Structures are given as structure tokens and as C-alpha cells.
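re: ur question from yesterday

yeah so i grabbed the chain u mentioned. its 316 aa long if i counted rite. heres the sequnce exactly as i have it in my notes:
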Amino acid sequence: MGCSKWRAAFNFGHLKLSDLSNSDSSSNNISIANNYGSKKFPQAIIIGVKKGGTRALLEFLRIHPDVRAVGSEPHFFDRFYDKGLEWYRRSDEGQGGALEAPGSWEIKPHKNLMPRTLEGQITMEKTPSYFITKEAPRRVFSMSRHTKLIVVVRDPVTRAVSDYTQTLTKSPGLPSFQNLAFRNTTTGLIDTSWSAVRIGIYAKHLENWLRFFPLSRLLFVSGERLVTDPAGEMGRVQDFLGLKRVVTDKHFYFNQTKGFPCLKKPEGSSRPRCLGKSKGRPHPQIPSEVLLRLRDFYRPFNLKFYQMTGQNFGWD
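ran it thru and got these C-alpha cells back, copy pasting raw so excuse formatting
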């Protein structure tokens, strides 16, 4: 298969779906209640980025008793928007994911997409592809302009290699990283149509979100610091969500084998909780000149991203 076909297979596909009204009507905020709590639209969404550390962040947040999260990635605002907002909240066509019991580690199969929450709890979901989906900001805004948005970002060069590594495990016949990353290996022209490269142009994607949401509604989490100082980043996240700082350094230990922080053994469990085998997998060897060329390509975009967010992530 040629590189162009591989790129097409590798890139995200987004359905062209009908849009709902932009109105932030009161009906959008009505909850479905019973004796076990209410089903609400998410008050906070982890919108990106792929291979940035979004799964780790969600797993860490699940420790908090006031967080209820959708187990699978709903992909509502990029793939299933035509099903309507009520489907998003009440759907019994679960996408094969799971919901955790409040404040516990037990994962249970579910029929409904949104979990029920009690007073004082917040509903969350995570779908990393929202960040790069052109229609997503307007659609989330239509649900509620008050939605809090979390973006986990990581050095775009490392992120691209991680993205490629994940796909390589599923498609061993994939062309080399450099053949996919460059339109022309002689001139070194970067192929921005390849999703592994395109996702890392964070400033471009952020511009789209800032057309609908003020910067104050977004929190940018460092994927690197989520590894080196998980408690510190989790403190920022809990503050942003208006939660008490329950998740602290006492919950973490560093797993030397995986190279990632893990959660200490929860009460009632026989073992600590670490991310799955797909996390922390070794990256293939990429020629240094390829990585340097890619780093040069990203540098101006990174600097613009630092200016837009008011944060220097230290990738350069």
C-alpha cells in the first residue's frame, strides 16, 4: 500500500452530520432524575489530545468521589451528533464502554451513556479527537457555553512518534515514520495532511475553540508533568473543576518498568492500578535528523501556542 493510502487509513475520519441549534436553551440543562441521581450533560470534557495523556488524566480523576465519568469515548460531537443531545444524555446504545461506581475502582458494563450523578458531583467525558474537529467547538457551545474544557498536551514531536507507534502495532506493514512525515524526503517538506503531524499543530486547533469559548473555560494540562508530577497537575485540574483537592501525592507511585506513575493499591483491591499494556510501549528508532527537522517545523507553532495559552511547556 502506498504512503498516501496509508495516510488516509491513518487519519481521522469525521462524518458530516447535521447540526443542532446554537441556542443555550434551558431545556439543555434539564436533568433526568430518579432515586439514584440525575443524568446530566457533562459539565467538563477532556477534548484532547490523542496520545497526550488523556486516559491517565481520566483514570486519576476517577479517584475523586465527586467525579462521574463515561468509561468509553462517546465521540458524540464528532461522529454521532446527528443522534441528538437527548441520545447523548440518555442513550441506551452504549458504545461498548463502561462506567465506574462513584469513588470506586469497579468497572461495570453499562447500557446508558451518561452516568447518574448526585448533588455536588460533576459529569465528565473524554474524546481526544474533539480538539481537532472543526465542528466540535460550536456543537459543544450549543450544548452549554459554560462547559469546562481540558486539553492534555505533549511535545508534538514525541506525540507524533507515539501516535505512529500505536498504529504500527496494529499495522506492522506501515511505511516508515519518515516516509509518512515528509511529502518529499529530499527537500524535507513536512506532510501536514498526516494526522500524526497535524494533531500537533496545537495553535491552529486552539484558534477554532477560542472562537466560541474564552480562554478561562479551558485548562491546558502538561502531559510531561502529568508523568513527572502527577499530584501537582491533578491539583490544578481539581481547582479548575471547582473540586476539593482529594487526589494528592499520597495516591501515586512511580512504576520504573513502565516509566509512568501508577495509582497505589486502592482500598479493597489486591493490586495497584496502572494503565494498560498499550501505555508506555517502547518507540521505534527514528533517525535524529528526522526528529530535528520535525522539531524545526513545530517550533513557530509551539511559540504561538505558548503565547495563546500564557504557558511555556518547554518543548523548545
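noticed a couple things. Residues 92 and 112 are 5 Å apart (CA to CA). also Confidence is low (pLDDT under 50) at residues 11-33, 93-111.
anyway ttyl
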